[in-house]
């Protein structure tokens, strides 16, 4: 899915929200203005009835036909009101629902809504505005136009004697409302547009600042990573130097750590360990004896059996190695392997005396590789054993000193291991 930049996303969502809000606001304002206009028309209807109809007609005029003289006088006065209040036409209806006077041809054949008329005549409501409808029978050019009828009761002595139906063109209301809505919407739109542009400008500036800061952070991150790599390389070189120093102290064990690492790697491939675990095991094999740098030479290179006290000193070398390597971050996962490579599967090893699968897998692998290389290398106190003797010794101690499953895997590669020597 295509990902849009932050500014474009903000602009799209903001524009959508703005348009939606504009539509809702327009509808609300339009309805409010329309209702306000209709409220004004109610007042117009009352004024028209009071000043034109009731001043010229009596109660009895609604029972009988209005004389031509009165009708002419009313029409004359009505024309002035119509022009003043934008009234299209006026019709007077009595209680018998008979049209007793219509000032204009607009009403010809256009009878008012029966239900609305009856509500007003029965005094159920004091004012009714009809829905807009199209004139079908008008004869003065108004045919087809939308009109609204306003029903206003004519009351004498507290009794409804008739109804005045004022007809107004719907466009007089809608155009008025639309004009005001347009002014308001344009004003609001202009304000929101200015606000929107300001927000976009602020967002753009902020975005540019963030992009610049992000670029700087990436550069700083790269520099830090490079510095860490150099530091790790420096640590690694130092550790290699220490490891080589350990081997250099004893000519009989020269190359021991490298051979242990290679044998461990062969065994790890036979076990189909992941590339990541193989790399961890390779480092653990290389540095498994680095703690011997802290063991005195007279103990490390003694020609003969160690005393109990001397053996206790030798047993400290895994923890010494951990202390040396603890600050090398990329060796963190190799540290447990290095610490426990002298543990025995039966639980009688050192430094912790753990047993079975409590011992890290890498430590169990190195234990086999370390023992094999130690047996096939000359020592101050003995000559090397043959490959066959070393393999037989490892098989003999399967399940006690070594993990039985790992011994079985070692037996599958022992011929390859032999070639290393």
Structural class by secondary-structure content: alpha+beta
Strand residues, percent: 5-15%
Count of DSSP-assigned helices:
13
Q: What Rg is obtained from the alpha carbons, in whole angstroms? A: 53 Å
Q: Uncertain regions: pLDDT < 50 for 5+ in a row? A: 105-110
Count of discrete structural domains: 2
Kindly report how far apart the N and C termini lie.
58 Å
CATH architecture of the largest domain: Orthogonal Bundle
CATH fold topology of the largest domain: Hypothetical protein af1432
Order of helices and strands: HHEEHEEEEHHHHHHHHHH
The CATH homologous superfamily of the largest domain is termed: Hypothetical protein af1432
The counted number of beta strands is 6
Q: What would the principal axes of the Cα set say about the shape?
A: rod-shaped
CATH hierarchy class name of the largest domain: Mainly Alpha
Q: Tell me the helix content.
A: 55-70%
Integer average pLDDT: 80
Q: Let me know the largest β-sheet.
A: 6 strands, antiparallel
Which features characterize this protein?
13 helices, 6 strands, Hypothetical protein af1432, Beta-Lactamase, single chain, alpha+beta, 421 residues, six-stranded antiparallel beta sheet
Secondary-structure map with pairings?
Elements (H helix, E strand, L loop, with lengths): L5 H48 L14 H18 L3 E6 L4 E4 L11 H8 L6 E2 L3 E2 L11 E11 L2 E11 H80 L6 H15 L4 H12 L10 H4 L7 H7 L2 H9 L9 H5 L21 H15 L11 H10 L7 H17 L1
Helix pairs in contact: 1-2, 1-4, 5-6, 5-11, 5-13, 11-12, 12-13
């Amino acid at each position: 899915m295509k990902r849009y930049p932050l500014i474009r996303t903000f602009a799209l969502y903001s524009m959508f929200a703005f348009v939606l809000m504009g539509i809702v606001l327009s509808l609300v304002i339009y309805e409010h203005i329309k209702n306000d206009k209709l409220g004004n028309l109610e007042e117009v209807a009352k004024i028209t009835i009071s000043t034109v109809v009731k001043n010229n007609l009596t109660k009895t005029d609604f029972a009988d036909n209005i004389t031509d003289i009165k009708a002419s006088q009313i029409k004359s006065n009505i024309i002035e009101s119509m022009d003043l209040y934008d009234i299209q036409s006026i019709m007077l209806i009595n209680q018998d629902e008979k049209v007793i006077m219509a000032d204009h041809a607009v009403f010809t054949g256009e009878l008012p809504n029966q239900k609305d008329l009856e509500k007003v005549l029965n005094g159920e409501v004091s004012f009714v505005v009809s829905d807009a409808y199209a004139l079908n029978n008008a004869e003065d050019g108004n045919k087809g136009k939308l009109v609204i009828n306003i029903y206003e009761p004519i009351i004498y002595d507290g009794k409804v004697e008739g109804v005045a139906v004022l007809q107004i063109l719907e466009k007089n209301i809608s155009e008025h409302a639309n004009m005001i809505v347009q002014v308001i919407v344009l004003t609001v739109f202009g304000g929101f547009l200015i606000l929107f542009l300001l927000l976009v400008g602020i967002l753009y500036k902020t975005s540019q600042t963030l992009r610049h800061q992000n670029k700087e952070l990436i550069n700083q991150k790269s520099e830090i990573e490079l510095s860490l790599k150099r530091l790790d390389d420096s640590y690694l070189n130092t550790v290699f130097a220490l490891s080589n120093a350990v081997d250099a102290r004893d000519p009989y064990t020269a190359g021991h750590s490298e051979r242990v690492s290679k044998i461990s790697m062969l065994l790890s491939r036979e076990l189909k360990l992941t590339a990541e675990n193989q790399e961890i095991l390779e480092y653990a094999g290389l540095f498994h004896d680095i703690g011997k740098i802290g063991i005195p030479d007279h103990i490390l290179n003694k020609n003969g059996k160690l005393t109990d006290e001397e053996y206790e000193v030798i047993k400290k070398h895994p923890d010494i190695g951990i202390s040396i390597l603890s600050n090398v971050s990329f060796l963190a996962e190799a540290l447990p392997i290095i610490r426990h490579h002298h543990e025995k599967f039966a639980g009688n090893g050192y430094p912790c005396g753990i047993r079975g699968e409590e011992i890290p897998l890498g430590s169990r692998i190195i234990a086999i590789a370390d023992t094999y290389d130690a047996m096939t290398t000359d020592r101050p106190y003995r000559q090397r054993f043959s490959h066959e003797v070393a393999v037989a010794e490892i098989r003999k101690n399967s399940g006690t000193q070594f993990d039985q499953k790992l011994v079985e895997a070692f037996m599958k590669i022992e011929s390859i291991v032999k070639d290393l020597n």
